[in-house]
Amino acid sequence: MNPNRMKAKVAIIGTLNMELNLGIFQKIPDWGRQVHASKYEITGAGSALRVAFPLLRLGERSCIFGKVGNDIYGQLIQETIQQSGLGGQGVEIDRNLPTGICISLVGKTKDRILVSYLGALGSFSEEDVMNHYSLIRNTQILLITGYCNLPGLGSRGTKRLLQRCQKDDILTLFDPGWDASGWKEKKKEVLSLLHYIDVFLPNQEEAIVLSGSKKPQEMAKCFLSKGIKRVFIKLGGEGSFGADRQGVFLQKSFKVRVEDPTAAGEAFNAGIIWSLLQNLDLKESQKFANALAALSISKFSKEYPTIEEVKKMAKKAK
Predict the structure, then answer these.
(1) Domain extent for 128
(2) What is the CATH number of the domain that holds 25?
(3) 217 touches 258 (CB < 8 A)
(4) Helices 307-314/282-296 angle, 10° precision
(5) CA distance 175 to 232
(6) Contact 15, 65 (CB under 8 A)
(7) What's the pLDDT tens digit per position in 199-215?
(8) Using CA atoms, how far apart are residues 198 and 206, in angstroms rounded to an integer?
(9) What's the rounded Cα separation, in Å, for the pair 52 and 57?
(10) Between 20 and 30 A from 266 (CA), which of 54, 218, 239, 291?
């Protein structure tokens, strides 16, 4: 089916930026030194599109909300959204700041270092979202991803948006992203927002900072006590830990050859969104999301798997 003819069931608020992925490095050089990369990829993406693309491959269209600069890179991102069949009416243009960029350095162990320039992302605001809220009202799910890289959105604006979504019976999902400033203010902000969130999607490092514990079960207990309905903690190579009021579940990761770990978390988020749209339970949701993430990191250039490929992988879950 032509994606443009599909109804968007999902709204995604997140970062939109250029990405430069370089790998594979034996080691990161010291200051004043140089090393050579063996692979690279340049693309217009960001956290919003890194969720939307695999979700679209699974047959679910999204409306995208974010901000780009009035430059060739912003134009490229907008064209990418339009050509892929995603909804881009929620993308705003900053006339003063350039489009953001994120540089990812992938190491021999397939771990990575991220260096970002926010640019137009820094001015993305509650007003930018509410100008197009009618698009969100017509969806079933809202995901806010990369919150810590959207400083202009603010905790008060995000709270008002989440409250409005609750009133309109829209399921709310939240991935905080890493706070480059060290969590001095963002920790309190994120914890205060959990009361208005249905599904929380932190990675392991974020969950440790926010909960004060290194044990997944205690992390989940902390977050559930704040009022959320479900939490999925992404544990990297160890898999994922899910919890709701009915129980907890640890799903081990699938063994694949890792080519590029970039956007593994976003692929996992896409898997959870698809699972929620299918009304899958906690355990089946994690199997599907883990499988999608595993298949996504098995290629350096992102070629997202089909629904048949993900289901086949999910059946191998132990």
Answers:
(1) 3-314
(2) 3.40.1190.20
(3) no
(4) 120
(5) 10
(6) no
(7) 999 999 999 999 999 99
(8) 18
(9) 9
(10) 218
